Amino acid sequence: MIDAYFRQIDMLISQSSMVHSYRVTYDKRSTYIGFIRGSIYFFDGSILHLREFVNVQHDIERYM
Questions:
Q1: What is the pTM of this model?
Q2: Is the pLDDT reported for residue 24 higher than 90?
Q3: Cys bridge to 6: 26, 37, 49, 54, which one at CB 3.0-4.6 A?
Q4: How far apart are CA 41 and CA 19, in angstroms?
């Protein structure tokens, strides 16, 4: 389900030793479809802006 996928992404980001801080929002569109957007701030001063539209019903399908 999409909630488990959201938790997995959040855990990967939060456990990275390179990440200083992050701001990510998770938008549940249905049981299997969701949208993730946010920014990840790294210790070296760089920033990663991300967006992902994903369906996890059968496999992880990323549409964007």
A1: 0.87
A2: yes
A3: 26
A4: 6
